[in-house]
């Protein structure tokens, strides 16, 4: 195979791959020489060792004497009057003109291309030209270096309604071969025919043409073959055939170039064979093809789709080293991927790099990033980009607005979400179902059900159709408010509209019933749901488990966990936190510890909340030894304690009078940027007072007051006494005021 490859490389004229008569003769010759050594590698050349087939001669019908006379008259007349309108010139002959005359006349005038076209045009106005006549004119136009005309003539044949498109393409192919030698002899005609077949979607026809032409020693050009590959890869079934075509065509003498490789990389990525695509990219370089920006961009897109973030960054670096600029589409994929995996800050770095490289990001890129920030809960950063966009006169579209509305809703800033919505309307932007649904969901989550329903009505009035997601938001809102009856009414309405409830709708209902403590009905609903063919997911089970845990029925909760595992559903950290909380509340600390161990064995990473539940119970039991042990476990898993963890530990240690330990944790917490809770302050101050470490107690008390936190009344009493005895009357009175004020506030607050 190697030999073959080299041979083609040497003998194939690169510019005109179709003129390769001589190539075949030479290769046949070499074949004979080397057949001795590698007979089977050269089978194809052997079969063509007689040389390519010759194109047939054109053998038209002979005209009668009378016909000849007429043809002669027509020819002389039109040649004599080349500048007169052809209709007028041919008027006297019109009544006697027959289809056959056309070809006889062409034989005479074929060297005068303009005349041929005029004449053909004249014919077309009168009748549909025969396939043979059309093919002849096609050959003449290619010979006259007018490929556009040839293309049009072929294309018309397949697309014009008056043409019998059911005609098999083979008939066309045969006619083109038949008329080739005598009317044009420019092999480019087959290239054009091939391109049209590709364009009109007759792909197997194109392939048949390719092989047919090989018999005549004509190889279709890379350009056309690229079109073929690219058309094939437009659908997934076609994609699957591209690798075979790629290697087959190459064996037949097509010299693929960079563009061809790029199409293949794209096709392989589309099929999800990203690694294979990458291999091709590497091979491309090895074989000396230039990898261009498209090659890399396509590859990067492929990796973005499968979420291989590390390779994406590596390829981006490689591109930069090679001085290739990624295109907007690629950058958008990269930014999208980074946002999806939660690396929003990195995504923004890509944008900055892009701007630095003088690529002007478009609204799609900005919107992707704004959406990323919103989903990550960083609305401030999203607004910053929104402003930047406007400063650069890149106009946000409904998608951008919807992302921001959603971000604000998530943060509970409904008024801001609504004003963005109004801004959209003021700008006469198209507000669609998605935007309405996002806003309705926001209002529901905020407990503003009435407003949500009024938006729903508005949406219907505008001719938009709420979908199941919209209704699920409404159902969820009602359930969260405990309005199960209204939710049920709405359900009936949804079903009457023919919409199918989905798992989210059911989960909202289950959640609503559980919140009302109606576990029995929730379980019943889950059974109904299974009958309807919708299977409970991890969320459903977790909700039910939570309800059982809260009701103190750990056996039932445990049974559900078992059922869930039997169904192959993977519990999440939320599931475990629910169970952990249940065990802890029920005082089943040993079970809690076992659960934690089991969870780690299953490879489900607990978070600080999981550990906090256990630590809290042990510290309530004054078992600081066990509490500390669990804390060490948390650190051992590489988790970071959160403010709540510190709070539990500090208060526990203070109560156990381990002031040294408590003080150390306090310092660590502050260094990490966490604020102490009121309770932790109270515990620490009381601990120090008990240990007679008044100075530390005073410092903390001042710090607490500066932060505007209210110490408990006992501490105010202690410090008032202390200051009174020290003679600080001003401060004593000040504290007195403060204590009164806080206690009043406390009382009204309760
Ligand atoms: C590949 O070949 C086609 C046709 O010969 C040409 O139009 C195209 O520019 C080439 N592409 C590259 C990247 O060389
Ligand atoms: C929001 O994103 C910006 C930019 O990445 C970052 O500097 C900031 O800390 C983020 N804010 C929050 C609250 O995460
Ligand atoms: C809502 O968003 C606006 C604009 O970002 C901000 O000015 C306002 O403080 C936010 N309100 C709340 C309650 O977060
Ligand atoms: C731990 O997971 C719970 C879900 O059960 C979540 O609400 C909480 O925010 C997580 N805590 C931390 C510190 O990530």
Automatic annotation (TrEMBL):
PPR repeat copies, ranges: 257-291, 292-326, 327-361, 362-396, 397-431, 432-466, 467-501, 502-536, 537-571, 572-606, 607-641, 642-676, 677-711
Pfam family for this entry, one: PPR_1
The keyword Repeat is annotated on this UniProt entry: yes
Gene3D superfamilies in the record: Tetratricopeptide repeat domain (1.25.40.10)
Swiss-Prot/TrEMBL keywords: Repeat
Record-linked PANTHER family: PENTATRICOPEPTIDE REPEAT-CONTAINING PROTEIN GUN1, CHLOROPLASTIC, PPR_LONG DOMAIN-CONTAINING PROTEIN
Family: Belongs to the PPR family. P subfamily.
Name recorded for this polypeptide: Pentatricopeptide repeat-containing protein
Organism per entry: Artemisia annua
């Amino acid at each position: 195979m190697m030999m073959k490859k080299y041979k083609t490389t040497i003998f194939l004229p690169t510019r005109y791959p179709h003129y390769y008569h001589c190539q075949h003769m030479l290769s046949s010759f070499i074949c004979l020489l080397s057949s001795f050594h590698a007979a089977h590698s050269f089978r194809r050349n052997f079969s063509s060792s007689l040389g390519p087939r010759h194109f047939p001669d054109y053998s038209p019908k002979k005209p009668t004497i009378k016909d000849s006379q007429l043809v002669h008259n027509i020819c002389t007349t039109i040649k004599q009057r080349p500048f007169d309108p052809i209709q007028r010139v041919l008027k006297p002959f019109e009544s006697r003109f027959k289809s056959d005359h056309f070809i006889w006349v062409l034989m005479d005038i074929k060297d005068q291309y303009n005349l041929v076209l005029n004449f053909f045009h004249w014919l077309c106005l009168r009748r549909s030209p025969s396939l043979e006549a059309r093919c002849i004119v096609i050959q003449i136009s290619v010979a006259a270096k007018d490929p556009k005309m040839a293309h049009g003539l072929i294309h018309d044949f397949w697309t014009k309604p008056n043409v019998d498109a059911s005609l098999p393409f083979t008939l066309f192919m045969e006619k083109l071969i038949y008329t080739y030698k005598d009317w044009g002899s420019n092999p480019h005609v087959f290239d054009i025919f091939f391109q049209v077949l590709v364009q009109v979607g007759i792909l197997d026809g194109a392939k048949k043409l390719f092989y047919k032409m090989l018999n005549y020693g004509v190889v279709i050009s890379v350009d056309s073959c690229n079109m073929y590959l690219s058309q094939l890869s437009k659908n997934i079934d076609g994609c699957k055939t591209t690798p075979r075509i790629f290697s087959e065509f190459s064996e037949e003498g097509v010299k693929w170039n960079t563009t061809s490789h790029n199409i293949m990389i794209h096709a392989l990525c589309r099929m999800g064979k990203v690694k294979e695509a990458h291999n091709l990219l590497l091979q491309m370089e090895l074989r000396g093809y230039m990898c261009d920006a498209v090659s890399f961009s396509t590859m990067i897109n492929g990796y973005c789709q499968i979420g291989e973030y590390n390779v994406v960054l590596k390829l981006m670096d490689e591109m930069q080293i090679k001085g290739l600029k990624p295109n907007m589409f690629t950058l958008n994929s990269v930014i999208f991927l980074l946002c999806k995996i939660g690396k929003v800050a990195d995504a923004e770095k890509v944008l900055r790099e892009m701007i630095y490289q003088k690529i002007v990001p478009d609204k799609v890129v900005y919107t992707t990033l704004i959406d990323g920030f919103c989903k990550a809960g960083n609305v401030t950063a999203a607004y910053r980009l929104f402003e930047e966009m406007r400063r650069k006169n890149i106009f946000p579209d409904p998608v951008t607005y919807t992302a921001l509305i959603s971000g604000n809703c998530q943060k509970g800033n409904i008024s801001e979400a609504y004003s963005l919505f109004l801004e959209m309307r003021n700008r006469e932007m198209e507000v669609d179902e998605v935007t309405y649904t996002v806003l309705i969901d926001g209002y529901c989550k905020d407990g503003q059900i009435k407003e949500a329903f009024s938006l729903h009505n508005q949406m219907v009035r505008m001719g938009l159709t709420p979908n199941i997601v919209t209704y699920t938001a409404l159902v969820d809102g009602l359930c969260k408010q405990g309005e199960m009856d209204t939710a049920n009414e709405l359900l009936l309405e949804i079903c009457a509209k023919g919409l199918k409830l989905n798992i989210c709708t059911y989960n909202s209902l289950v959640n609503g019933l559980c919140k009302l403590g109606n576990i029995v009905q929730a379980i019943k609903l889950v059974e109904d749901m299974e009958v309807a063919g919708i299977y409970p997911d991890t969320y459903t089970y977790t909700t039910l488990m939570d309800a059982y845990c809260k009701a103190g029925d750990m056996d039932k909760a445990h049974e559900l966990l078992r059922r869930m595992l039997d169904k192959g559903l993977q519990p999440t950290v939320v599931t475990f936190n629910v169970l952990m909380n249940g065990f802890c509340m029920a005082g089943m600390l040993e079970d809690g510890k076992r659960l934690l161990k089991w969870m780690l064995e299953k490879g489900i990473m607990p978070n600080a909340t999981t550990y906090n539940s256990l630590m809290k119970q042990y510290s309530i039991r004054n078992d600081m030894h066990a509490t500390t042990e669990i804390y060490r476990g948390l650190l051992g898993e590489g988790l970071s304690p959160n403010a709540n963890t510190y709070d539990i530990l500090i208060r526990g240690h203070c109560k156990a009078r381990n002031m040294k330990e408590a003080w150390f944790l306090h310092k660590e917490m502050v260094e990490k940027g966490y604020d102490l809770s009121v309770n932790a302050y109270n515990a620490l101050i009381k601990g120090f007072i008990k240990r007679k470490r008044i100075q530390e107690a005073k410092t903390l008390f001042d710090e607490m007051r500066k932060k505007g936190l209210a110490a408990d009344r006992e501490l105010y009493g202690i410090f008032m006494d202390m200051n009174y005895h020290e003679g600080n009357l001003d401060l004593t009175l000040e504290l007195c005021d403060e204590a009164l004020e806080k206690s009043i506030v406390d009382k009204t607050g309760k």
